[in-house]
């Protein structure tokens, strides 16, 4: 008899082997009991069923008062009642361990576990009952506990209680056998359960793996070592537009799988060769970009599956990156291409040009780089709006591309500026011809937003290797040449010359000089008289004084505007210069009045200042200072480019000037684009025939005819004509006979300082010939009027 002390299992006891309690002496009841137990054991499908059936057998056929099976929870080292037969609660205390029953009285069953051997107690021995038997029927005279093993571990206990030492008497030998049978069946069931659990876990893992491989955006194909399909996921089927279910593809060879792919969405032929090579090489490949026949792009990873050094097949993963590629392309498009024209932008042009430059240098090729700018493009935007302007730019790009060869390059630099790169030129003449063709193509009318637009462009070129600059240098030189083309009157192409760089520096330096002169009062005005040919009483024959700007920063000669013409229309300086001139001119006019000479003054206004929103503010502020000037007469001269730059706005500004009583004249007529019909629409008082027509009017019939035509038409339109640059009295006489109203030029007076003006005005006497010529002309006109002839033109 083993002592029980109520402790939980001591270490090492768990693996004790079951011991048979005693041999069965009477084979009668005992053997039938064991046979029945064997039948139960072989048929039992679960532990619970087995334990319940054995307990029922023990109490039934075995006549036990109660029977129970307790199972050990190895994690918590607790016993749990798994089956019981007999009066309720009879076995509870016997198996309780931690449920509050006194340790000394709970140790009977635990004792069997701790010892790993059966325990028995009989009342006949006179020993105390191993636990309070208050709930146990009084006739229980003997108890037995048999440990049961599963997989070599002590896992359960069979507890039997019998009356009057039934266990020890006739059938006592059957109980150990019953316990053995139960133990074996229990072990078998546990092993089966463990196996089932393992299998379950295995299939669970497979399911989990399949679930993991079934992500919706990555197509997965698992091939066996023999390259047959082991697994594909739904994403793979969707990616390749397969109508088969993933399961139905399993077992196919790669070739069979390939044959099922619809033609349009399969990889291209060379991709199949790549796949074959990848399979043969059998080493991991990540990030292969694959282009499908339908234009989609896939990213493909290939991973060989190798377990314990053995080839177990391969895993292919396909990700559709078409959208990502499109996005990247869009980003690239934005970064490197112009949205309006679709042409490469400035950044891209430099990349391409650098490559072209390297190639040309290596192959000793000639490379032309051009920068082209549409003349007065702002006017286009003002007329047809921004969208219309964009359409003009797109069409300009198309026209230029129509002339270039496919290998040449055209880029949009921004605004209305384009860059051109032309390869493999034979000569400068060839470039001239291309340049002319491009300019000619751009002169053809544009039809946009219901308007017909007539445009022109200027282009600057440079030729590598004659110009051996780098990409940036070549573009800068082409821009300098463009600047020259603009200076030369636009609508032309100019080839870069090294002197242009020096000229550019000079222009920049001059701009600085003028800016400084404005601050240090080193600008001043000279005044040049404009006189009447036919005289006007009371004004001494002087129509007015034109204020002409000079730079006076050398302490020696005055610098004339020809040297700083570009600064007069400078975005930053045009208005400050204009304000200075307005103030100085009106101040002088006011001073002459105070000196007793009332003489109208006119000032030249740059187009930029004229169209500046603050122009009338500037006029008002100067007239506030010298209001009496308006009584004498104050006028402005604008150049022909003015109205043609922004016709509508210029027209409005001119009208507002006239409304305020300011005379407006159109300067340098004949050099720009303004026509006489155009002048008809403008509220201008006079036009100034440009001196280029006057200078050789005596010897150039064409210029003479133009001058005569302008004078006659202007007279018909009731506009005054002033001829400027009259250097000789003969020129003056001819203009007088043509009917010109007023003259200005060196033959009358050179520009003079303001202080000299009152004296000059007082002394001025028109040449006697003019009055004579005017009279003659009037007489001739009268004669021809009577005869109904055209007005006469002197030969
Ligand atoms: P413009 O308004 O046509 O002025 C007439 C120019 O012709 C003046 O040149 C004048 O000195 C010159 N000139 C006058 N008579 C003769 C002549 O008989 N023979 C020759 N060869 N030339 C003659 P200037 O003063 O050098 O001015 C040149 C241009 O500069 C002006 O042409 C005008 O467009 C511009 N300019 C002058 N002053 C100003 C100014 O204050 N503001 C602005 N924005 N431009 C000005
Ligand atoms: Mg002028
Ligand atoms: Mg002029």
Helix content: 40-55%
Average pLDDT rating: 85
Bound molecules: ligand C2E, magnesium ion
Strand content: 15-25%
Q: Helix- and strand-based class? A: alpha+beta
What is the overall shape? rod-shaped
Number of strands: 26
Largest sheet features: 8 strands, mixed, barrel
Poorly predicted runs: 1-26, 97-105
| Radius of gyration over all CA atoms, rounded | 57 Å
Task: Give the termini separation.
Answer: 160 Å
Which strands sit side by side, in order, in the main sheet?
18-19-20-21-22-23-24-25
Question: Total helix count?
Answer: 28
Characterization of the model:
- Helices cover 44% and strands 21% of the residues.
- By secondary structure, it is of the alpha+beta class.
- An eight-stranded mixed β-barrel has the order 18-19-20-21-22-23-24-25, surrounded by five helices. A five-stranded antiparallel beta sheet has the order 2-1-5-4-3, with helices on both faces.
- It is built from 28 helices and 26 strands.
- Residues 1-26 and 97-105 have low confidence and may be disordered.
Task: Write the topology of this structure.
Blueprint: H1 27-43, H2 47-59, E1 66-73, E2 78-85, H3 92-95, H4 107-115, E3 119-122, E4 140-150, E5 153-163, H5 174-212, E6 218-223, E7 229-232, H6 234-239, H7 246-249, H8 254-260, H9 269-281, E8 285-291, E9 297-307, E10 310-320, H10 322-336, H11 346-363, E11 367-374, H12 377-403, E12 409-414, E13 417-423, H13 428-443, E14 446-448, E15 451-453, E16 457-464, H14 471-487, E17 493-495, H15 498-519, E18 523-532, E19 542-551, H16 565-568, H17 574-594, E20 601-604, H18 607-610, H19 615-625, H20 629-632, E21 634-639, H21 641-645, H22 647-659, E22 663-669, H23 676-681, E23 686-689, H24 691-695, H25 701-716, E24 720-724, H26 729-738, E25 742-744, E26 752-753, H27 757-763, H28 768-787
Parallel strand pairs: 16-17, 19-20, 20-21, 21-22, 22-23, 23-24, 24-25
Antiparallel strand pairs: 1-2, 1-5, 3-4, 4-5, 6-7, 6-10, 8-9, 9-10, 11-13, 11-16, 12-13, 14-15, 18-19, 18-25, 18-26
The site of ligand C2E has 25 residues, from strand 19, strand 20 and strand 22.
């Amino acid at each position: 008899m083993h002592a029980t002390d109520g402790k939980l299992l001591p270490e090492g006891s768990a693996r004790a082997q079951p011991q048979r309690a005693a041999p069965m002496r009477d084979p009668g009841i005992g053997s039938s009991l064991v046979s029945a137990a064997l039948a139960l054991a072989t048929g039992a499908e679960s532990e619970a069923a087995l334990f319940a059936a054995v307990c029922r057998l023990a109490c039934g056929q075995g006549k036990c008062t109660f029977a129970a099976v307790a199972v050990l929870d190895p994690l918590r080292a607790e016993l749990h009642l798994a089956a019981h037969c007999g009066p309720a609660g009879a076995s509870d205390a016997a198996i309780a361990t931690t449920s509050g029953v006194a340790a000394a009285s709970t140790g009977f069953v635990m004792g069997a576990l701790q010892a790993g051997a059966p325990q028995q107690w009989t009342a006949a021995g006179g020993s105390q009952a191993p636990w309070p038997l208050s709930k146990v029927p009084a006739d229980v005279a003997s108890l037995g506990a048999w440990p049961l093993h599963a997989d070599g571990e002590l896992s359960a206990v069979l507890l039997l209680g019998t009356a009057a030492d039934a266990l020890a008497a006739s059938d006592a030998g059957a109980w150990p056998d019953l316990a053995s049978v139960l133990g074996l069946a229990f072990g078998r069931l546990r092993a089966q359960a463990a196996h089932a659990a393992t299998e379950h876990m295995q299939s669970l893992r497979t399911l989990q793996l399949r679930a993991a491989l079934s992500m919706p955006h990555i197509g997965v194909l698992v091939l066996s070592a023999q390259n047959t399909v082991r697994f594909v996921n739904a994403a793979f089927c969707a990616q390749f537009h397969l109508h088969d279910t993933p399961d139905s593809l399993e077992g196919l060879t790669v070739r069979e799988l390939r044959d099922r792919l619809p033609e349009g969405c399969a990889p291209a032929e060379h991709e199949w060769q790549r796949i074959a090579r990848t399979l043969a090489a059998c080493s991991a490949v990540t990030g292969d970009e694959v282009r499908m026949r339908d234009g989609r792009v896939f990213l493909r990873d290939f991973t060989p599956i190798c377990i314990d050094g053995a080839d177990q097949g391969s895993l292919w993963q396909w990700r559709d990156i078409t959208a990502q590629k499109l996005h990247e392309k869009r980003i690239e498009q934005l970064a490197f291409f112009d949205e309006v024209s679709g042409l490469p932008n400035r950044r891209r042009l430099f990349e391409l040009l650098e490559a072209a430059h390297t190639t040309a240098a290596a192959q000793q090729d000639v490379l032309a780089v051009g920068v082209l700018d549409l003349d007065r493009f702002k006017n286009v935007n003002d007329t047809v709006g921004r969208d219309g302007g964009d359409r003009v730019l797109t069409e300009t790009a198309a026209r230029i591309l129509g002339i270039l060869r496919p290998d040449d390059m055209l880029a949009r630099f921004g605004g209305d500026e384009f860059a051109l790169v032309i390869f493999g030129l034979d000569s400068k003449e060839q470039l001239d011809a291309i340049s002319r063709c491009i300019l000619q193509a751009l002169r053809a009318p544009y039809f946009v937003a219901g308007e017909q637009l007539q445009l022109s462009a200027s282009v600057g070129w440079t030729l590598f290797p004659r110009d051996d600059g780098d990409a940036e240098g070549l573009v800068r030189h082409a821009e300098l040449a463009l600047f020259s083309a603009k200076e030369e009157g636009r609508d032309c192409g100019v080839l870069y010359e090294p002197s242009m760089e020096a000229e550019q520096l000079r222009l920049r330096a001059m701009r600085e000089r003028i800016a400084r002169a404005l601050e240090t009062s080193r600008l001043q005005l000279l005044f040049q008289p404009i006189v009447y040919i036919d005289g006007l009483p009371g004004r001494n024959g002087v129509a007015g004084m034109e204020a002409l700007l000079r730079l006076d920063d050398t302490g020696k000669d005055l610098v004339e505007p020809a040297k700083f013409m570009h600064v007069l229309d400078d975005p930053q300086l045009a208005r400050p210069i204009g304000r200075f001139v307005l103030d100085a001119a009106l101040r002088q006019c006011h001073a002459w009045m105070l000196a007793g000479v009332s003489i109208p003054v006119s000032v030249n206004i740059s187009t930029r200042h004229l169209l500046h929103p603050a122009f009338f503010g500037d006029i008002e502020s100067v007239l506030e200072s010298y209001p009496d000037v308006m009584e004498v007469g104050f006028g402005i001269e604008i150049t022909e480019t003015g109205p043609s730059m922004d016709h509508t706005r210029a027209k409005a500004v001119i009208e507002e000037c006239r409304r305020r009583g300011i005379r407006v004249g159109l300067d340098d007529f004949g050099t720009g684009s303004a026509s006489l019909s155009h002048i008809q629409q403008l509220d201008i008082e006079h036009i100034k025939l440009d001196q280029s027509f006057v200078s050789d009017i005596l010897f150039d019939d064409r210029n003479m005819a133009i001058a005569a035509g302008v004078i006659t038409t202007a007279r018909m339109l009731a506009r005054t004509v002033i001829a400027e640059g009259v250097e000789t009295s003969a020129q003056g006489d001819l203009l007088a006979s043509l009917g010109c109203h007023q003259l200005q030029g060196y033959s009358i007076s050179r520009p003079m300082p303001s202080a000299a003006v009152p004296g000059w005005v007082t002394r001025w006497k028109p040449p006697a010939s003019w009055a004579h010529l005017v009279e003659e002309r009037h007489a001739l006109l009268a004669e021809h009027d009577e005869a109904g002839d055209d007005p006469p033109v002197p030969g």
